[in-house]
Structure formats: structure tokens, C-alpha cells
Amino acid sequence: MRAKATSSSLAVLALVLTSCGDGGGSLSGGSSVTPTPTTAPSSAGALYSVPAQEALSAAEVGTVIARAAAQASAQGDAATIAVVDRVGNVLGVFAMPGASATSDIPDSPNGSNVDAQGLTVPAAAAAIAKAITGAYLSSNGNAFSTRTASMIVQEHFPPAPSTAGLESGPLFGVQFSQLPCSDLSARASDGLIGPKRSPLGLAADPGGFPLYKNGVVVGGVGVISDGVYSFDPNVLDTDIDADEAIALAGTIGFEAPTSIHANRIFVDGTSLRYSDAAYSSLADVSGASFTGTPGALLAVTGYYDGVALLAGSAYGTETSGIRAAGVTEFGYQDAFVLSDGAGTNRFPIRAGTDGADIASPISANEARVILEEAFAIMSRARAQIRQPLNSRAQVTISLVDTRGEVLGIVRSPDAAIFGIDVSLQKARTANFISAPFAANELQAATGEVPAFVTVLRTFLNDPSALTGQFAFADRSGGNLSRPYFPDGEVGQISGPLSRPIEQFNPFSTGLQSALVVGNLAQHLAFVTGAAPNDTPRFCTSLQQVRPDHTRIANGIQIFPGSVPIYRGGVLVGGIGVSGDGIDQDDMISFLGLHNAGQSVGGIGNAGHDIRADRILVSVGGRKVRLRYVNCPFAPFLDSDENNVCEGL
């Protein structure tokens, strides 16, 4: 059963906002198309296949909506349906007669709502977030749904009453990415350039799926009909979910290949979940036509004008905002970069901007070598979340200086889109919490953010914590951001950067969500028409290091895949990786940085004596050590090496 929202007294934030399965691989109607293995070369010397440039036409967008609406009618439901392309452009939002204009987010378990808990949000925003999640989490090697997302963001993995005591989901916290305030994510006013932002971040509410053409992911469909924007706390049962059945019907003719469904992918021996609805249980919607379907296109401020259905942008083209790197932009022919639609790389490799703050910033050559060495590790790494088995890992790699300014972003051709924003969040987070300025900037922030510094210092018994004495990878910060410490261990205290378990759900994670709740409130008020101005193009109320820019301008991230960068014991930046398994992400960032240091000298990982795994926390009469990085077993396709990070 899905957690349902209950009525509660509205806080000031809520008042602003309200103004406005297959159970393991048995889906019977999926496409039989098999994706091209990512290990096949696309041209001489290349290691990756470049996805075919497929896109949804406006007519096909109408077909997706019509089939979803036909299923909703057959069920007796009225739905709001959204369709996006692979890079998040909203191609259509459709409201059936009687569809609710709003949806409710569940209350906190103890009824004391914070952050996004207990809020009423626009139904269209929920549908768009679900569609974006289906598109962004998927690739030609994996098809993930919002039900998959639900499974990997909760306090235990897999989430179920009987799994208490297991560690949290591997992508715990990813729901607070693709934020509407992100300085990386594009907006509708930017045209068809992606990747686009999401009004509610990534969704864990079943009812969002990817869309495919000829085995190539081209977008996503999202549905809300039941008035609840929630998550599934128990993967051991099979839900009858109205939203999921409607969205699944929308994928007919655009199904993900069954060979790459989430239930064909295992994490720590556990099969992921794709859908509790099955194609065989759906009505016959194959003849549905958009013309004559009851309902109307719905304008959504900041996302879609509601005038007409739009065609999608083909991923890999200039207009998509993500394209192959030019020969002068990066040293590997497999690399892709972000572009502005007119041929200009949005995040070219460059030197650090923080020369006024530190003695020796990262040079442009060092930035290039760091990214190239990380890219080389990725191209050798065995993927965890891709089919077929023994595919190469595909990720996005981001590099920042101490001000959080981007010094370069590169990615493999078919890495999942969500990893672009997340890799940058990770790089900035590792840099920020390892820095001498972290405590001061958090203490100067608005709202409850400063209180987290006090709680952390008490928890670590260190009155000088967050002033640069220790280097924190995202795995370390993630340890401190879980509602159980040690992670998953029931009956223990909560991490100091988390909500206590009595108050926790995926809509309020702690410092991560507290940093951006003001941005979310401002944005949703703008979407509903309750406020004239949108949230700025940067997140958080932290000190601005230049006009309209903070060090963590797209929010923080709290699952592994990043390390800070040092020169002679001095912090000079951070590298973040996202798009595959978290151990693979850790290895690519940590080992790539190490190899870069070996190549150019002077830069590298934090010294052993200052890494966060030197920190011991007293818990229940014993000492618990924080983690730094964790590299995978049998990590490479081209060798039988193991323990590749040990001793470095």
C-alpha cells in the first residue's frame, strides 16, 4: 500500500503553496527490442555506442496522452497527464474532465511537518516531475520508473516492514535533485535546451515511466489521478495503483525493452522494481486518438504554454543541449558535453576562479587531466545498473573549484540524464563540507539551517567541525545524513544532518531539504500564480560568492560519488560522478583524481590523516567510524584487478 497524506493544519509555507506490477519481470506487453550493447564500438577507436537520434513527434505525444486517458476512462478515473522528452522539455500536459487541480504530499510520521511534508501542490507539477523522473533515470541500458525511484530513496533498502535494520537506499536523497532553483538545469524560457528542471525534483510516486522508440529512450510520461503525491513503503506487496496503470497504458507503442526493465537489474543482490501494473491487465487502448479525447491541454507557468502539443528534441543534437564533444573540447572521442543550442559548450574546461581565496587554484591543464583520468576509469569500469551484463559504466563527471564554480562537465554518450545535475551537486557538496568556510556560511543562512552546525558538532564531540580539519566525501556526509546512525541500524540515534526517524520521510531529509525549502516554496507559488516572481537561478540562502551564485547553487547531495581535491593539504575543489552504481561512482572520482595527481603532480586526494574515515563517533557504548569511499569488487572489464583503491 502507498503512504497516504492526511489532513493537517497548514503552516505558512503550505498556505503559499495551496493558493494556487510486474513484481519481477512478468510484464506481458513490453517491447521485444533489444538495445545495442554499450560495449560495441560506434566508430574506430570509440568504446561506446552513440544513441540513435530518435525523438517524439507532436502526434506521438498526442498518442501517449490519448492512450493514458483511455485507460483512465476505463478505470473511472480523471487524470492529469504529462509527457516530456529525454532532456526534460515538457511536450504536453493534459487534464481530463474532473481531474483534481492539486495533489497532497504525505505528512511527517509524527505529524510535525517540515520542508515539503504535508503540502498541497499543483497536480500538473506532480505529473511533470513523474515524467521527468522516468526519462532522467533511464537510458538505452536501463529503464527505471518512479516506482524504481521509490525503492532506492528510502531509509531501508529494499523498503518493507521486514527489512528494518538494512542500510538506506543507494540513491538516498536523489529526490532533491533537478531542482527548480538549480543553476545548471534549464528553464522553458531557454527554448528546447536541456536538461530541464523539475518543479518537484525527482518523484518516488508510482505513475511515471520512460518512453522508447526503436530501443532508444526518448522521454517519459507521468500521471496523477488519485490526489496523492507519495511513495511506496513496502515492495513486498503488489499495489493496485491507478496512476501507474494509466501511465503504463501511455507507454503502449513506446515501451521500454523488457531486457532492460529495472527488475532485470540487481543492486546488492536485490532486483529493482519496475511496475506493479501489467500490460495484460490494461484496457484495449490501441485505437485511442488524441482528437476527440475529453479534456484539454493545461498551461503550466514556467514549463508549458498549453497552446499545442510539441515535438521532442532528439538527444545528441545541438538543440537538445547535450552533444558530442568537439575535438578541441575534450581528449576522448566518446565524450559528450552540455551545449547552449548555438554550438557553445556551457561548461568548458577552465582554470579555477578562486585565486583571491587560495594560493594555487586548479589550473586549466590540471582540470583537463582530472576529467580525462576520471573518464578513463569510467571507460574501463564494469557497469552495475546497465544491461546487458558486462556493459561499460556510463556517468557524468563534474569538476568545481572552492567557490563551487564549474571547471568542466563531461559525460559518456548514454549516461542517464539525472546524473548531470547530481554529479555537480556531489562535487560541490564534497568541496563545501570539507572547506574552512562551511560552518560560517551555514551559520549565516536563514531558517533552521544554522542549527544543523550545532547538532553536528555535538554529535561529533568536535566544537570546530566543518572548519576544514577533515575531508568529507559524499559517502561521509551521507553517513551523517541518515535517520539512523549507523546507517539503517534500528534503535540508534539519527545522523546530525538528518531528520529523526519519527519525523523523516522522503520529502524531508534534513539539511539537504532545509537548504532549498525556501526556493521550492517560491517556485511553486510562482507556478500557481500566487507570486509574480520565480525562484532565482541558484539554490540556497547561503552567502553569495558572486552575484546570484552560491557555492552549492544546485543544492547538496547525500549519496556517494565524490571526493574533495587537495594541493599540499589545501582544499582546491571537488569532483563528482553520477550515473551508475554508487561504488562505481566512488571509484571513478577517487581513482580518477589519484591518477591525475600521479600524472601532473601536486594535486590529489586528501591525505589519509584528514579523511573523514579517521572520525570515530560514540554510539551505544561503541565507536563507529565514518566512511570515505568504497570501490567495487571486480571493477574493470579489461583486467581481473581487485581492491584497486586500497592504500591510495
UniProtKB/TrEMBL annotation:
The lineage of its organism: Bacteria, Pseudomonadati, Pseudomonadota, Alphaproteobacteria, Sphingomonadales. It comes from the Bacteria. InterPro entries: GlcG_carb_metab_protein (IPR052517), PduO/GlcC-like (IPR005624), PduO/GlcC-like_sf (IPR038084). PANTHER family: PROTEIN GLCG, SLR1406 PROTEIN. Keywords: Signal. This is Heme-binding protein. Pfam families: HbpS-like (PF03928). The keyword Signal applies. Residues 1-21 form the signal peptide.
